[in-house]
Design goal:
By secondary structure, this protein is an alpha+beta fold. The chain has 2 domains: 87 residues, Arc Repressor Mutant, subunit A; 56 residues, Dna Ligase, domain 1. Helices cover 40% and strands 17% of the residues. The protein contains 6 helices and 5 strands; from the N terminus they run ααααββββαβα. The structure holds zinc ion (2 copies). The site of one zinc ion (ZN) has 8 residues, from helix 6. One zinc ion binds next to helix 6.
Length: 143
């Protein structure tokens, strides 16, 4: 999986630098998680990768341009990243209480199209729907 992603970078106009390779490694090893740049930075530090937070931001920006990662905005200005090239795409539920993220089945573009006025002349290329609410743990606390 990592080789495939490295190949994608090599085939692009960008170089596969050591730093990019390290960040890719973190993303692949945590492919079931949704990580903030700060969390990636902490993992990098833990492994003595010697990466700055600025490098991580820049690299994530590049990876998202190359479609290697998917960006998830949780509201409150927080942005999380997940490694993307494999696996079924999905939508997300974000808990407003604890910030927990659950993956849901993909909410399909075709299903959304029926909400668009018929006479609107739009070309739709992507659909990103997030569900917000309270997870079962947070519901218990609220009671
Ligand atoms: Zn919660
Ligand atoms: Zn996800």
């Amino acid at each position: 999986m990592r080789e495939r992603a490295e190949q994608l970078i090599k085939n692009s106009e960008y170089k596969l630098t050591t730093q990019r390779r390290k960040i890719l490694k973190i993303l692949v090893e945590n492919k079931n998680r949704h990580l903030s740049p700060m969390e990636i930075y902490e993992i990098a530090n833990f492994n003595n990768y010697g990466l700055s937070i600025a490098t991580i931001y820049r690299t994530l920006h590049l990876f998202s341009k190359l479609n290697l990662v998917k960006k998830l905005e949780t509201g409150e200005g927080k942005i999380l990243y997940e490694f993307k090239i494999y696996g079924a795409s999905h939508s997300h539920f974000i808990c407003l209480g604890c910030g927990k993220i659950l993956e849901t089945k993909k909410i399909k573009l075709e299903d959304c199209k029926k909400y668009i006025p018929e006479n609107a002349d739009l070309i739709i290329t992507d659909c990103s729907i997030r569900l917000f609410g309270y997870c079962c743990d947070c519901q218990k606390i609220k009671e």
